[in-house]
Design brief:
heterotrimer, A mainly alpha (265), B mainly alpha (293), C alpha/beta (425), A: 265 residues, mainly alpha, MetI-like fold, two-stranded antiparallel ribbon, 2 strands, globular, B: 293 residues, 77% helix, flat
């Protein structure tokens, strides 16, 4: 009986979350001029997807987004994990340090965009994916560090004390004991970093060119003066979501692993 | 003696861990940050590209003495509180349910992360389509159920709530993700002990889950507060700050200053003012919570 | 620490050195940031001809209007711009020259004897052209007029009801009062919105309101540069605008943009729409708007003057002389009479009188006759450094008045004051 209630609750939540995207999926598969029709499915057409990949070169933007998002996470995670651990266990920098780092996250991107552009310009990194990846990695670090700090704090210190009394170094304790247990946290942080980079708009707008644009920039360009091509936007959104659905199945495994590791001794 | 050495060793070890991150941030973000700070006390606009004469706090005063600034700040505070509260309550509920189920978990997970996967601009565009007052599907459903169509974004008293609702819809999956991971990392022992003692589900939740989840929960709330405070894409696409100024949040105000008003210095000042406000909010929040312990 | 700063210094020196060699000696490629609209696509189709003729390659980067300004500004403030050919909106025609980002084209015009007399004068003044300095050459215009449903005007039941109620015949409105009256009537009796209005704050509602203002005989500034918005005509315009938005327009008008109004008109749910005149072919299109194709017509804004807008070509200052020469070649080519006619035959909105009168063009698009009157008679939104920001200020006040958050007199005064404040800056 309880099982039923649980599943009912989850189904309600899922319905709330998923009905809009389902409508988006439907809109992407009807011709553009019928996008606003209130019939559930007036006609089937792949024209939106064809137009995106053909005329709008969406394939390139897709690839760009993947490169930049994955790259920025791979770079940011190690820095963020180490920093988060220092904050959690050693109170490094004290209150001031961690808030200083966090405050970088609090600035609206608007303030940093033009200076960042000026620097990257002088290093010839504008309109390139490398420049954008570096910026995203840096933008991600504070955020990821704080999340991981939260996870590390939630892990009882006893394990590490035990290991260090046995003679392991702090680094060894971190690497061999803390990290495996915090895989759910790392996975979550990684996915989050990926999503942040995947969806970021302002820096991408200013720092990329016509060949290196990412998906948010490409989607924004579908808002033409003659109207928002909502059918194509829908198709673009559907395509943009796909990698993340894949990614979430991936982290699911880590979270399950975390469960079995969590049962200490 | 031993104790002192250990303290020192700990201090050094801590910095060994943290230094790479700090350096990376200093290198990549340091210059833009300093430049933006300097810009905020300068005279630099798009029309007057020189930094001098320095205006000190002049820009801050100009920006903060506009009634629009305080209106925007207050609006942003209300907005952030509503959205974070909504996301947290809903998110925690869903995460708890998710934690209890074993079957179909991957499917739920995959489905729940969909809104989070969408960029704020996409979310705004999609919801604009759904909420279109004359042609959108939401009003159509309402009408077919016998109700009257709602002016979601054109009604000044409703627009902010509509925007908040859309934001919650998108962000709740992020909160679910973090809290679910947090719940999954919790050790089993306390629960087993509580079962033996005969504690109810509610008691377990209140006395075991919540306290143990506290670090993760607090971080989530803080991060979400910060994110919501910086909301910019949603008002930009949905309403451009209108109707009137009912959705003009602080981030949008700063953007207007810099890009429309061409006053880079004032835009920077507004951004830093925003930063200071958020920072103080966060510090106060943490201080209050620490005291409760 | 020392090592770090020397690395940074080396990197920036290297970067600077590399930057100065961006402009390759061999073959200039023109790169322009263009708005993603049919006009751009039309020109894109003709680019191969240009390349064949001159050997200069042209690349268009297409984006939405909202992002153009944000992408242009960093480039124009950098030591060297990656865009060496510019498409500039009239709203920025005050800002860009003031900031010193554009080259003065007058010497180029004089040297190459480019004939500018063929351009309709209003399109030039729109872009800030004066006898002594020209920074922009008109590209195409987007003046606004009234698109309305002919079938609803001819419907006998509606005609009888209207005659009974107002004692006049139902016809194309001649004055602004007439228009709003018909609009409200249609909403009450014909089951459609009287007017599809784009009331979103900023460009949408500022542009639309301007038509009401000019139609009522009002203006933003007079010849001496004084702000004249807060006048009896201005008050009348605002009153009629608010009336129409609240009683004649579709629900949710205050959040509607051009996209929304276009879809509304296209689906047959609106009687009229004050909009850019080249929207007519979009709506009078059997494939896209089956419900209203053949039933819509274009008229000048009741009162005779609608809001005028347009785009111009410009050349950024921070580019090499070779790039500037290439850009000028392109501008001459694309605005030459032959190419202009070619563009018009595909639906381009011309800026030269001769093109509107060209026999082939008129054969294909008979309504271009009406369009020319609209373009010639159009008045413009105030063009100065902060035009874009003023759209936002005015837009806010319009919404306040229409939504009831401010008394109309106060909103109008605030709008007028906002303009004078910005003009003084």
């Amino acid at each position: 009986m309880r099982h039923f209630g649980l599943h009912a609750g989850l189904w309600l939540a899922v319905a709330f979350i998923i009905l809009p995207p389902l409508w988006v999926l439907r809109t992407s598969l009807v011709p553009e001029n019928m996008a606003y029709s209130t019939e559930i499915f007036p006609a089937f057409s792949l024209e939106n997807y064809q137009s995106l990949f053909g005329q709008k070169r969406f394939g390139t933007f897709y690839l760009n987004s993947i490169i930049v998002a994955v790259g920025s996470v791979i770079i940011a995670l190690p820095f963020a994990a180490a920093m988060g651990y220092a904050f959690a266990r050693f109170q490094t920098g004290g209150r001031f340090g961690r808030f200083l780092v966090l405050s970088l996250q609090m600035l609206p991107p608007v303030a940093l965009v033009l200076p960042a552009f000026a620097i990257l310009r002088s290093m010839e990194l504008t309109q390139s994916l490398t420049g954008l990846t570096i910026v995203y990695a840096a933008l991600n670090i504070p955020f990821l560090a704080w999340i991981l700090m939260g996870f590390f704090e939630g892990i009882p210190v006893d394990l590490e004390w035990a290991a260090m009394t046995d003679g392991t170094t702090a680094w060894g304790a971190f690497w061999r004991i803390v990290l495996p247990v915090s895989l759910p946290g790392l996975a979550a942080a990684g996915v989050l970093g990926f999503i942040l980079s995947w969806n970021e708009f302002l820096f991408a707008l200013v720092l990329t060119g016509s060949k290196t644009a990412t998906i948010p920039v490409a989607l924004a360009s579908l808002q033409t003066s003659n109207g928002i091509q909502i059918g194509k936007v829908s198709a673009g959104v559907v395509l943009a979501i796909l990698p993340l659905i894949v990614a979430s199945r991936f982290i699911q495994r880590f979270i399950v692993q975390g469960l079995t590791f969590g049962s200490v001794k | 003696m031993n104790w002192l050495r250990r303290q020192e060793r700990e201090w050094r070890v801590g910095w060994a861990f943290a230094l790479p991150g700090f350096s990376a941030l200093a290198i990549v973000m340091g210059f833009p940050l300093v430049y933006a700070l300097v810009m905020s006390i300068s005279s630099q606009t798009l029309l007057h590209p020189q930094l001098l004469p320095l205006k000190g706090v002049g820009n801050f005063i100009t920006v903060m003495s506009e009634s629009g600034f305080w209106g925007a700040t207050w609006l942003t505070v209300i907005y952030s509180v509503i959205t974070v509260a909504g996301e947290f309550v809903l998110g925690l509920g869903i995460a708890l349910m998710l934690n209890r189920t074993v079957k179909m978990k991957p499917i739920y997970f995959a489905l729940l992360t969909i809104p989070m996967a969408m960029s704020p601009v996409s979310v705004a565009l999609i919801w604009r389509m759904l909420l279109q007052p004359n042609l959108g599907i939401v009003n159509h459903v309402i009408e077919s159920l016998g109700g009257a169509p709602v002016d979601w974004l054109g009604n000044a008293s409703l627009a902010l709530w509509t925007m908040a609702g859309i934001d919650i819809w998108q962000q709740v999956s992020f909160v679910v993700l973090i809290l679910a991971a947090g719940l999954a990392s919790l050790p089993r022992d306390p629960y087993e002990a509580a079962e033996v003692d005969g504690a109810t589900a509610w008691q377990q939740f209140w006395n075991i889950t919540l306290p143990m989840l506290r670090p993760v929960a607090m971080i989530t709330v803080v991060i979400q507060l910060i994110n919501e405070f910086r909301t910019y894409d949603l008002p930009y696409v949905l309403t451009r700050g209108g109707p009137g100024t009912s959705t003009e949040v602080l981030s949008f105000f700063a953007y207007r200053r810099a890009f429309l008003g061409l006053s880079l210095n004032e835009g920077a000042a507004a951004s830093f003012a925003l930063l200071l406000i958020v920072l103080s909010m966060t510090v106060v929040f943490f201080a209050l919570l620490e005291r409760k312990r | 620490m020392l090592k770090l700063s020397s690395v940074l210094a080396a990197a920036s020196l290297l970067g600077l050195a590399a930057t100065s060699s961006i402009s390759h000696a061999d073959g200039v490629t023109l790169r322009a940031l263009m708005e993603d609209v049919p006009e751009t696509h039309i020109i894109e189709g003709l680019l191969p001809d240009f390349e064949k003729e001159t050997g200069i390659k042209v690349e268009f980067e297409k984006v939405g209007y909202g992002d153009m300004h944000d992408k242009l500004v960093p480039q124009l403030t950098a030591p060297q711009s990656e865009y060496n050919l510019l498409e500039v909106d009239f709203l920025w025609a005050g800002e860009f020259p003031k900031a010193g980002w554009l080259t003065d084209l007058s010497p180029l015009i004089a040297d190459s004897k480019f004939d500018t007399s063929g351009f309709i004068p209003s399109t030039f003044t729109l872009l800030g052209g004066t006898p002594t300095s020209t920074f922009l050459i008109p590209m195409y215009n987007y003046s606004m007029g009234l698109i309305y449903r002919t079938d609803l005007l001819e419907d006998q039941k509606l005609r009888d009801a209207y005659k009974a109620q107002f004692g006049k015949d139902l016809a194309v409105p001649a004055t602004l009062d007439d228009y709003v009256q018909i609009s409200k009537f249609m909403k009450a009796n014909a089951g459609v919105a009287g007017a599809a209005m784009q009331g979103q704050r900023g460009d949408p509602n500022s542009m639309e309101f301007s038509n009401y203002l000019f139609s009522a005989g009002g203006s933003y500034v007079n010849d001496k540069g004084e702000v004249t918005l807060n006048s009896p005509e201005g008050a009348k315009a605002l009153a009629l605008y608010s009336d129409n938005i609240n009683n004649g327009a579709q629900q949710g008008a205050l959040s509607a943009t051009l996209d929304d109004t276009l879809r509304l008109m296209c689906s047959g749910e609106a009687f009229s729409m004050v909009t850019y005149w080249w929207m007519l072919p979009q709506i009078d299109n059997a494939e896209k708007c089956a419900k209203v194709a053949g039933k819509v017509k274009l008229a000048t804004m009741p009162g005779g003057s609608g809001e005028s807008g347009g785009w111009g070509w410009g050349i950024p200052k921070n580019t090499t002389p070779e790039e500037q020469a290439a850009a000028w070649k392109f501008i001459q080519w694309v605005q030459s009479p032959e190419i202009a006619v070619k563009r018009a035959l595909q639906g381009h909105a011309p800026v030269q009188a001769a093109v509107y009168e060209n026999a082939d063009v008129l054969a294909k698009y008979p309504y271009y006759k009406d369009a020319m009157a609209i373009v010639a008679g159009g008045k413009s939104f105030p063009i100065f450094t902060y035009s874009a920001q003023y759209e936002d200020v005015l837009g806010t006040q319009l919404q306040n008045a229409a939504g009831g958050q401010a008394k109309p007199e106060d909103a109008l005064k605030a709008a007028a004051d906002g303009l004078s404040d910005l003009m003084k800056k």
